[in-house]
Amino acid sequence: MAAARLPPLSGGNMVAVGPQFDGMLGTMYRLDDQHHPLPPPRSLKPYVDTKAGELEIWPSHASGQDVPTTSAMLTKSKGLVLISDEEMGKPQLIPKPRFLEQLESFVKKELRALNVMEVKPSELRLQAYREVFEYLIENFKTYRSLLAAIKNEYEMMLAYQRQQIRELEPLRQMLVTVSEQCDQKIMALRDEEKKEILDLRQAIKKQSQEMSAMHNEKLDLQKQVERLQDELEELYHQYRNECDARKLLITDINDLRYQQEDYLMSKQNQQDTQTAADDPVIMKTALKKAREDEKAATQRLNEMIANYGDVIPRRDFEAVETKCKQLDEKYLQVQGDFKKLHAEHEALLDVNKQVTQQRDQFYVELETLKRSSTPRPDWDKCADYISGGIVHWRQLAENKSSNELVDVLLTEIGSGGIVDSGGADYFDALGTGDDVPVYLRYEGQVRNRKLGKRDCALLIRDIWREKGAHDAQKADGIRENMADFLHMYLKRRFALDQMVVEWGYNLEDACKRYENDENIGQFYGILTGKIDEETFHAQIQRVQQLITALTKADADHGNLGKLPRDIFKKTLEEFFEGISEEGLLTFVNAAEVELDAKESQEFEYKNLFMEDDEGKCTSFLEAVYKYWKEQKQKYVDDIKQQLEDTNPVSVDDLRRAIMLVDPEISDTQVAGYLSWVYQTPTDKIFDADPLDVAVVVERLLNGNVLRVGKHT
């Protein structure tokens, strides 16, 4: 039985007692010459607390065993080991308590008797350990209630789990049954499909054989037809030759007959003339006979003329037939030449039409340039103000247009390339007041890095990329304020507070100097709160929608990465609903100039949406942005016209004007517009004070405002 240890008393030795000694009779016991009172016998429970126990002298009882020990040693796992000199370093653990050894021996004996020595889930193993646990509960009376409660909880949980298993067992059996039925159905369907497939294959094979036989039969019939045609042609030639020979033979027979008759006639006439020259009766008879012969000859002549009047000689027929074949061949050749000429004529007409359209476009562009052109400036004058002189300026200005030269000049101004730029070397900080943006709060002077336009554009591009990732990680979906995010961005990028403030002031200064740039000006407006950040994201979203529309049109026409001019124009017309023909032609012309696609008439539309590292877009995108800006301007002008002479403008006035201009707009969008214009949350918008009409118009132009319905 396990022994209980008493705590050390006033530096004395530790005494081990059994659990039966919790209620030892007596009034006092002695420990290290100190007296300690014991409870009176009447306060103890009968037959429980007064039961005598046995002393457990563990671990000293191990000294009775033959355990060779020479030294003790504390291991890394905080266990005490004994080192034997005889076994040369083999560790021996301190023996276990006797009660623990008895319980373990009992468990092993029971498991061996039940033949469940293998460690795996088993009711018999659980029963053996349950009995050991009950022995522990019975012997440890102090912890009996807690151990009994633990045992009851485990037993209750086991009973509940068994009940759940019993309830789920029918479901498992039903699932197995249903699975088997489904497998059987699937196998039956597969067998039926296999049979159908075999039947279809046999039918296909049979039909293929029939088709092959019919094809062979067709070839045999064609050969027979060709052979019969050759025989018919040969018979026709034989018949024609025999017919011609018969006609010639009849002609020869008739000639011989006529010659014989003439000869007989002349001979008889001579005889008659000699014998009866003076006989009138004979003369009369001869005349009558001559007349009959003449009549018969005339009749035969008429018959010959009637039968052979349309017959020509064979030689002439063959000559005419040869000439006819030559004329047929010449006719076919001329007809083919005519078709080619006709196709070339149609192509020339199309080319002429396209050239005419291009001529008209170029004429319009020429007239526009004539109206807007100014005398070309003398750009070499800039060489006197550029570091490096005329040589450096000519290198920068080589093969560049006037618009590009302006960009080069502005870049040189921003990068410090202008001689005597006059910029201060330090900024005076604005202080640490609440009205100062968080990224500019500083006392003292800040170094002026004279940030160039390119560096400013690259920094803004990186800020937008980091802010997009930061906003995407927010769970509430609300975008971070640009000024606050810029402070976080600079702190994350630069470890020193001095560098954070320095780059904040330099970015502010560069944005002010290059505010005329579209991207930099938009960023600076969002940073200062004058422009709604949603305008930037909405613009990107609309560009992405345009790319999607062009990609879909490309997929419908072969997915070649190119779009013909008419398909490209039609897609733009469908996307920009309600756009005029002139505006659509502006987009197409910008795409042609950007892609140099006038000859191929095909647009590699994906190249129209490229940007350089400074964020500068193509001329096509510039035309698209300009169109959207003009549409917003028209929308705001219509709202301003509805306001008429209303000044100041209240929330109700502006809401009524927006609804009149755009009846199809939703209440949520109207609330968003009003919240931006009056700088008030949507739930408190009607408590906002009226604003001047100029302020309302300016905020509408700087906000994410877009016409929903069609322009009336």
Describe this structure in words.
With 712 residues, this protein is mainly alpha-helical. Among the domains are: 4-68 and 81-114, no CATH class; 163-275; 423-531, no CATH class; 611-712. The protein has 18 helices and eleven strands. The chain has helices at 98-114, 123-139, 144-275, 280-308, 314-372, 389-397, 402-414, 453-473, 482-493, 497-513, 518-528, 533-556, 565-575, 581-595, 619-643, 651-661, 667-677, 693-702; strands at 4-5, 16-17, 28-31, 34-37, 71-74, 80-83, 91-93, 426-428, 445-447, 563-564, 602-603. A hairpin with a 2-residue loop joins strand 3 and strand 4 (34-37). Helix 9 (482-493) crosses helix 10. The longest helix has 132 residues, at 144-275. The radius of gyration is 59 Å and the shape is flat. 11% of the residues are buried.
Short description:
The chain has 712 residues and is mostly helical. 62% of the residues lie in helices and 5% in strands. Among the domains are: 4-68 and 81-114, no CATH class; 163-275; 423-531, no CATH class; 611-712.
Topology at a glance:
Elements lengths: L3 E2 L10 E2 L10 E4 L2 E4 L33 E4 L5 E4 L7 E3 L4 H17 L8 H17 L4 H132 L4 H29 L5 H59 L16 H9 L4 H13 L11 E3 L16 E3 L5 H21 L8 H12 L3 H17 L4 H11 L4 H24 L6 E2 H11 L5 H15 L6 E2 L15 H25 L7 H11 L5 H11 L15 H10 L10
Antiparallel strand pairs: 1-2, 3-4, 5-6, 6-7, 8-9, 10-11
